[in-house]
Amino acid sequence: MFADRAKIFIKSGKGGDGHVSFRRELYVPAGGPDGGDGGRGGDIIFVVDEGLNTLTDFRHVRKYVATSGEEGGKKRQHGKDGEDLIIKVPLGTIIKEAESGKVIADMSKIDKKVTILKGGRGGKGNMHYATPTMQVPKYAQPGQSSKELYVTLELKVIADVGLVGYPNVGKSTLLSRVTNAKPKIANYHFTTLSPNLGVVDLDGSNGFVIADIPGLIEGAADGVGLGHEFLRHIERTKVLIHVVDAASTEGRDPITDINKINEELKAYNENLLSRPQVIAANKIDAIYSEEDSIIKTLKDEFEPKGIRVFPISAVSGKGLKELLYFVNDLLKTMDREPVEFEQEYFPDEFNDNPDDPFTVLKIEDGVFSIEGPRIEKMLGYTNLESEKGFMFFQKFMKDNKILDMLVDLGITDGDTVKIYGHEFDYYK
């Protein structure tokens, strides 16, 4: 079975904790702090692999976790960084946040490489916290937490032209006739299960990529059958070719079929109807009446709406040249870059959990402490040595009413506030 959708769990590596240790050497009875920094956690990175064309692998492996950074060591040794986890996906894969369905990344370019989740930053060892008044710091910074996310992967075929139509109207035959694609062809009443791609080569032109989008049925936009799975492939195409059975060999009405398919396209994504459309009236070799009344009826119905009708025979090749060159001229007027979906969800906008507790305590006269998971997490991704980072820290303290709590506890100018190894002088 062709797999074009999967849901997986991804998690970056946690940053290694900073280390607490002190120099212990002969004749150096009171060496200074020498605890090293923790290593960086591994990132979750997605890359395009041209050798893949389905998401089948993700049906079997659904959990992807990068390695964490190692803790820092003695003698200022830096902990080993965690290894990044590279996840390979087919060209055209859309990565979405599972719950909201918002786009995180569109892997529509061959050399695309995207870091979805960054590993946690390593914590600083106690060697960073020695000051003239605190020469024996017995604390180090914890590593930043890992990040995790459920994402859905959706494969949307990248093609310039999409062939749409009901099952058994000749789309696969047409594709095999005009390209090097080799789809399975038979008189089946059920539909092709996977999109088939082929390249159309034209004299004096660069040609274009064409896809046989699996046959649509009424109700596809509501998820009937495999509707959603197939409709998503149409979203990238520039031009749509409606293939209809002009000979009505199975009693189908071509005009009704075209209108119904357009209704399904509109119900799924209204923007699809703004794409240029062309009608390929297939199987004209099976029309035995002297006058091709159905071709005239199709032209009278659709050409006033700007939709050209081309009588063709996918079996004999009649009319195909005119159809293909017309479509090629249409594409020349359009941007040939793949339709790319804009990012809507940004995993790096990491918000604290408002439910994480913290405590503000008075330890002794003139000394106060602030602790708790939320505070520790904030320090893990805030660089207090930079002006911007320190301003973020001050805003965090104010927004969470921590400054008000300190005032309620009786803090005054010049008092000391301790926060996980950091010491600050309080001034209003």
Secondary-structure element order, N to C: EEHEEEEEEEHEEHEHEHEHEEHHHEE
Shape: elongated
Which strands sit side by side, in order, in the main sheet? 10-11-9-12-13-14
The radius of gyration over CA amounts to 32 Å
Poorly predicted segments: 183-192, 350-354
Mean pLDDT: 81
Distance, first to last CA: 67 Å
Largest pleated sheet:
6 strands, mixed
Topology:
Blueprint: E1 5-11, E2 44-48, H1 57-60, E3 63-65, E4 85-89, E5 93-97, E6 103-107, E7 113-117, E8 148-155, E9 161-164, H2 171-178, E10 196-200, E11 208-212, H3 227-234, E12 239-245, H4 254-268, E13 277-282, H5 293-302, E14 308-311, H6 320-332, E15 359-364, E16 367-371, H7 373-380, H8 387-399, H9 402-408, E17 416-419, E18 422-425
Parallel strand pairs: 1-3, 2-4, 9-11, 9-12, 12-13, 13-14, 16-17
Antiparallel strand pairs: 1-8, 2-7, 5-6, 5-8, 10-11, 15-16, 17-18
Q: Can you walk through the features of this model?
A:
There is one protein chain. With 428 residues, the chain is of the alpha/beta class. Helix content is 20%, strand content 22%. The protein is built from nine helices and 18 strands. It has helices spanning 57-60, 171-178, 227-234, 254-268, 293-302, 320-332, 373-380, 387-399, 402-408; strands at 5-11, 44-48, 63-65, 85-89, 93-97, 103-107, 113-117, 148-155, 161-164, 196-200, 208-212, 239-245, 277-282, 308-311, 359-364, 367-371, 416-419, 422-425. The strands form four sheets. The chain has a six-stranded mixed beta sheet, sandwiched between helices. The protein has a five-stranded mixed beta sheet with strand order 3-1-8-5-6, with helices on one face. A four-stranded mixed beta sheet has the order 15-16-17-18. The chain is elongated. The model is unreliable at 183-192 and 350-354 (pLDDT under 50).
